[in-house]
Design brief:
With 453 residues, the chain is of the alpha/beta class. It has four domains: 79 residues, no CATH class; 107 residues, Alpha-Beta Plaits (2-Layer Sandwich), CATH 3.30.70.100; 122 residues, Rhodanese-like domain (Oxidized Rhodanese, domain 1), CATH 3.40.250.10; 63 residues, no CATH class. The protein contains 17 helices and 18 strands. The chain has a five-stranded mixed sheet with strand order 8-5-7-6-9. A four-stranded parallel sheet has the order 10-14-13-11. Strands 12-15-16 form a three-stranded antiparallel sheet. A hairpin with a 2-residue loop joins strand 3 and strand 4. The longest helix has 18 residues.
Length: 453
């Protein structure tokens, strides 16, 4: 601020010219429409917005003016607040011709707002005016080429913080894998922001699996990190790509395969999740490897090739992501008659067939641990063998395993994963250093060599 000759206060804020306003509106329109452009269209003159296809530019312009004026006006204000953006060439406007390296070079910070990072003002307005509908958790992934995962990681952090979402997100050159939770309105804004981002043009709203949340499903907060793989299998994506995965089959096709399985023993259903996941929920008759980590999957396949020989292998996992490269590895061995995978994983199957062939609960990667659609219980208490399938963390602070201990056994103090772990916890309290491994892990072979049904 400064004063004129009369002593009146005058703002030092630069005056916005009419030319700048016009340029800002033109750029805001360009950014928004570019984010809706279909890459699959050869001439670059087709857009998808609000579930409608537009092939005539004037029709798209009219639609944006009528239905998205608030977003455009908000974008104009933010562009005017950062005049350098008015003259900067943003590659999003040339999205059809852009390569991944061009798309992901933009930097994201609190002062720059793009169509795929809603402004704080816009978020606050929508959150304040939205009807309270509870909370939900999203599970999603997208295999795509990201030349600058650090930028994507920063954008995801700011997006989740702005929307007050917690969860776990892995970003790599091969794509993104995440699960986040919060208010329903916030998760809907998150989905809109992700599918607007030019790097994720192939992901659709229906690719986000949704389940009811509690609002406190990620007590450790938000974790967004850059990794070598979006799901760790221990093999570089440059050596084994998801593009070599088995064909996808829909939940209804998978259901039909299950119904025909008894008629033809030349097919095998296999769960590529970890043992503690299949322990509480599985498909009857499926092979459930007793492996502790997905990174053990390649070794499991190598040691059990005879199990897959000349068979049609039908794979499944929680949401589909592990099957992408897991099936690619199995195919690379050349022993199977065919390899297919359940599109959308168990999550999509139980949505369509809540009382179908999947029995028990579906393990999820947040503090709920499991979700269920039926009343069947396939697990049992680790101490008394009573039917029981509610996971809780081991009470020993040095241990990171989950425990199935029924209410009666917990009352008797059986709250650790095993007796040895409980004893180790006592010794630790006395000042003795404790190794995490206990009888639970000692008795389990790293790679089982026979199938576990």
């Amino acid at each position: 601020m400064y004063s004129n000759e009369k002593g009146d206060a005058i703002s030092s804020k630069p005056r916005v010219t009419l030319r700048q306003k016009k340029l800002a509106r033109k750029k805001a329109f360009g950014l928004f429409e570019a984010s809706k452009k279909l890459k699959s269209c050869l001439d670059g003159r087709q857009w998808l917005c609000c579930g409608q296809n537009f092939v005539i530019p004037t029709s798209m312009h009219t639609h944006v003016s009528k239905e998205h004026s608030a977003e455009i006006n908000n974008q104009v204000e933010l562009l005017l607040q950062s005049p350098d953006l008015l003259t900067r060439r943003l590659h999003v406007s040339n999205i059809e011709a852009a390569q991944p390296s061009e798309i992901t070079t933009a930097k994201y910070d609190n002062n720059h707002t793009f169509p795929w990072l809603p402004s704080e003002a816009d978020v606050n307005l929508k959150m304040a005016s939205a009807e309270e509908r509870g909370c939900q958790v999203l599970l999603f992934y997208d295999y795509c080429n990201l030349d600058n995962p650090d930028d994507i990681c920063l954008w995801q952090k700011q997006l989740c913080q702005r929307l007050q979402l917690n969860g776990k997100i892995r970003v790599a050159n091969e794509g993104i894998n995440g699960t986040v939770g919060g208010r329903i309105t916030a998760t809907e804004l998150y989905i809109d922001a992700v599918i607007l981002h030019p790097a994720f043009s192939n992901i659709r709203k229906e690719d986000f699996k949704v389940s009811k949340g509690t609002g406190d499903d990620f007590t450790q907060g938000l974790s967004v990190k850059v990794c070598n793989e979006i799901v760790q299998m221990g093999i570089s994506p440059s050596c084994l790509s998801h593009v070599d995965a088995g064909n996808h089959i829909t939940p209804s096709e998978f259901h039909e395969e299950l119904e025909r399985s008894k008629e033809n023993d030349n097919r095998i259903f296999i769960d590529c999740r970890n043992y503690y996941e299949s322990k509480v929920g599985k498909f009857e008759g499926a092979v459930t490897p007793d492996i502790r980590k997905f990174s053990y999957w390649p070794e499991y396949v190598d040691q059990n090739l005879s199990l897959f020989e000349d068979k049609k292998v039908i794979m499944y996992c929680t949401g589909g992501i592990r099957c992408e490269r897991g099936s690619a590895y199995l195919k690379s061995k050349g022993v199977c008659k065919d390899v297919v995978q359940l599109q959308g994983g168990i999550h999509r199957y139980i949505e369509q067939y809540p009382n179908g062939y999947f029995k028990g609960k579906l393990f999820v990667f947040d503090d709920r641990y499991t979700i269920s659609t039926n009343d069947s219980i396939v697990a049992e208490c680790s101490y008394c063998s009573k039917p029981f399938d509610t996971y809780q963390p081991c009470s020993s602070k040095h241990c990171h395993q989950l425990v199935l201990s029924c209410d009666q056994c917990r009352v008797r103090g059986k709250t650790a994963c095993c007796e040895m772990c409980q004893e180790k916890a006592t010794r630790r309290q006395e000042g003795t250093k404790v190794v995490e491994e206990c009888s639970c892990t000692k008795k389990r072979r790293r790679i089982p060599t026979d199938k576990n049904e």
